[in-house]
Design a protein that fits this description.
Layout: H1 3-13, E1 18-20, E2 23-25, E3 29-32, E4 35-41, E5 44-47, H2 55-62, E6 69-72, E7 75-78, E8 81-83, E9 88-89, H3 90-94, H4 102-105, E10 114-117, E11 122-125, E12 128-132, H5 138-147, E13 152-158, E14 165-171, H6 176-185
Antiparallel strand pairs: 1-2, 2-3, 3-4, 4-5, 5-9, 6-7, 7-8, 10-11, 12-14, 13-14
Amino acid sequence: MRKITREIVDAFQNSRSLTIGNSRTNGESLWLFDNKIAEIRRDGLWITNAGWDSATTKERLNGLSGVHIAQRGGNWYLNFRQWDGGWVNVDAWNQGSDSIPEEVVQEPEFDITSEWVDVFGYSRPIYSIFHTLVEGNLEAVEQMLNGEGIPSKRMESDTEGMYCPNYFIVVRPEDVVRASSILCENYSLI
C-alpha cells in the first residue's frame, strides 16, 4: 500500500481531516481528485469508484478496512462479488450470498507494495519490471510475459502534487528475475 493511501485512510477512519496530494478527507468523507469515493454514514461505510475504474481509485479503496477490490477481465469485484462501482454499503454488501467466481478465487497474488522514489517524484511498485508514461506501451510487455507463462498486473502511480500517470507492469516476487531476463533479451521488441 502506498504511503499516501495509508496516511489518508488512517485519517479518514479515525475521523480526522487531512489533505495529501490528490486525496483529502474531512474525517467523514474521502475524496480522490475531488471525487467522493467513500463516506461514513449512520449505517456504516459506503464506497464508490465515482465512475473511475483506475488503479489509483482501486488502490485508495483497497486501503479501507473491510474492502478488497480485484479486477478480472475488465470487471471489478468487491469482496469477491462483481461490482459496478456504484455507491454501496460495504457491511450490507458483505451480507450478500453471491458465489465467488472461479477466476477471482484463482487470481494470482501480487505484492503491490510501493516505495517512494524521491528523485522522480512517484511511487514505484517494488516488484515492477517495466515502467512507461504511455499506457499503450504495456500491452506488448504483457503479451511477452503471458507467452512465457508469467502472470502480470498493471499498476498506475501518480506524481506527487500533480496528475501525471506512471504505468508499471508488476510480477509475482518469484517471477522477477525470469521476467527481467525475458525483457532484457527482447528489449528491441518493446
